[in-house]
Design brief:
The complex is a heterodimer of chains A (274) and B (196).
Chain A: H1 3-23, E1 34-40, H2 46-49, H3 58-62, H4 67-71, E2 72-73, E3 76-77, H5 81-85, E4 99-108, E5 112-120, E6 136-142, H6 149-152, E7 181-187, E8 192-198, E9 202-203, E10 212-218, E11 221-229, E12 235-244, E13 254-255, E14 259-263, E15 269-270, E16 272-273
Chain B: H1 9-14, H2 22-46, H3 50-53, H4 57-67, H5 83-87, H6 92-111, H7 117-137, H8 141-144, H9 159-170, H10 175-178
The chains are: A alpha+beta (274), B mainly alpha (196).
């Protein structure tokens, strides 16, 4: 047997052992929890958020301030929820629960990024357009070409003319003007996982994250664990969470603001290395 | 008839009094001055009350109903800012100028320019723009009767207000630059500020 064959065999064995190791699920008891508050945002697409006469904070946004920088305070969101639930910003009727926490844990290894969401999905929704799924959980990851992706989170994909917005085309999905989001979704019916993207339109398949997800209901709480390809150590990836609770669809989700996820790097949420 | 014996009201006013002492005339003049001046001011102050402003259904049925839902009407500290606190200057000169300008509104009332909710909505943007322009021009003087940057501790504010006020102070912004539509419904079709 030649030396090269031996080396190849040894390298192959090590790789196999290594890949076994990196595939192992994280020990979640050792991964810190961070509450990410999601909220019903009503009709506040990016056009609203960046328009001064609608949102005076847009002056701060233009100076580089992030949504979280102004609106996450003392472990919660400081929005005027009365205003968000009012007819002007929610003409169809707001859900009874305007905001709730999603306990978020993130871990990574050489191959994957693991995200676990734990939350109680509230009832009392205002729109039950999705008869099949009681709950859906979606993650969006903005690439570097999404303008202010880290600042604005998912809002660069949320537009006034997208479906379920007042008067909008029912077939027009969320979209971006520049760059792309990776989209990963878990749906409660059949534990269905979608690996998609948002560019000029939203696609629920054909994504490149290799996403897997396991989720389930225990008591009145949901725990959903996503596994996706590691975008790269040393990166801070912009991401956001959306929960469609109580069979809601379209914009009737509870969404998070934009956070950065630090993978071996600084971020609003730091992933724990396995 | 001699020239100094001219008759008539004007001539009587011009003729020195032979009957009353200078002191009597001064006392009567002083007392009358207080009476008329006080009466004038009292009358003007009566037009500065909430009750006067909502005496017309145009105000009572539209902007008053909107204002009643805001913090300037009801709040935890029990301080209320009524219509005139925001819309009429406190100092006499500016107040008089504003009152004279407001006499045009009497004509509006007589001709029924905004006497239905539909007409009010048609004119809402124009009326709001007029008031915003007035407030912008006087550096939000009426706001600053109660709120000043000097007395404001931005560190005690909610994060969103704190950060925006720091920007506002640094850029010498005035209250109305951001705080539009805080006591009344924002009009549809608002123009975006050109300086942004």
């Amino acid at each position: 047997m030649s030396k090269s064959v031996v080396y190849t065999a040894v390298a192959g064995a090590l790789l196999a052992i290594g890949s076994q190791a990196v595939q192992a699920a994280p020990d979640w008891s050792k991964v810190p929890k961070r509450d990410v508050h999601v909220f019903h945002a009503g009709v506040t697409p990016i056009e609203w958020a960046t328009k001064k006469s609608d949102h005076s904070g847009s002056a701060g946004m233009r100076k580089g301030e992030s949504c979280v920088g102004c609106h996450e305070e003392k472990g919660a969101l400081n929005f005027n929820f009365k205003r968000l639930a009012d007819k002007e910003l929610e003409p169809k009727g707001a859900p009874k629960t305007m905001t709730f926490p999603v306990s978020t844990q993130v871990a990574y290894d050489a191959a994957n990024l693991y995200i676990r969401l734990t939350f109680k999905a509230p009832s009392g929704g205002a729109d039950k357009g999705d008869k099949d799924n009681e709950v859906k959980a979606t993650l969006l990851f903005a690439d570097a070409k999404v303008a202010q992706g880290a600042q604005y989170g998912c809002w660069q994909s949320c537009h006034a003319d997208a479906r379920s917005m007042p008067g909008a085309d029912d077939k027009k999905t969320k979209y971006t003007k520049e760059g792309a989001y990776e989209l990963v979704q878990w749906a409660s019916k059949g534990n269905k996982v979608s690996d998609g993207s948002v560019t000029t339109e939203r696609k629920m398949a054909g994504g490149g994250t290799g996403a897997k997800a396991e989720g389930g209901k225990s008591g009145d709480g949901y725990t959903i664990t996503f596994t996706r390809k590691n975008p790269g150590e040393g990166k801070a990836v912009p991401f956001g969470v959306a929960i469609h609770a109580d069979n809601s669809h379209g914009r009737f989700h509870h969404v998070s603001l934009g956070y950065t996820l630090g993978i071996g790097a600084d971020g609003d949420i730091k992933a724990t290395k396995q | 008839m001699a020239d100094n014996e001219k008759s008539g009201f004007l001539a009587m006013l011009r003729r020195p009094s032979a009957k009353y002492s200078l002191l009597s005339i001064l006392i009567v003049g002083f007392a009358s001055g207080i009476f008329f001046w006080g009466g004038f001011n009292t009358g003007m102050e009566a037009t500065n009350t909430l009750e006067f402003c909502i005496g017309c259904h145009e105000m009572r049925d539209n902007v008053y109903q909107e204002y009643k839902k805001t913090i300037h009407y009801s709040n935890r500290t029990g301080v209320r800012a009524v219509c005139s606190d925001c819309h009429v200057p406190k100092d006499w000169t500016h107040k008089m100028i504003r009152k004279i300008q407001a006499s045009k509104e009497v004509w509006g009332k007589i001709t029924g320019v905004i006497d239905t909710p539909e007409k009010f909505e048609t004119h809402r943007l124009q009326m709001a723009e007029n008031e915003w322009a007035r407030m912008k021009a006087n550096d939000s003087r009426e706001c600053r009767n109660c709120h000043t940057f000097d007395a404001m501790d931005v560190e005690k504010q909610k994060l969103r207000g704190s950060k925006m006020h720091k920007i506002g102070i640094a850029e010498k912004k005035t209250c109305i630059d951001c705080h539009k539509g805080i006591a009344h419904t924002k009009p549809k079709g608002m123009k975006e500020d050109e300086d942004e």
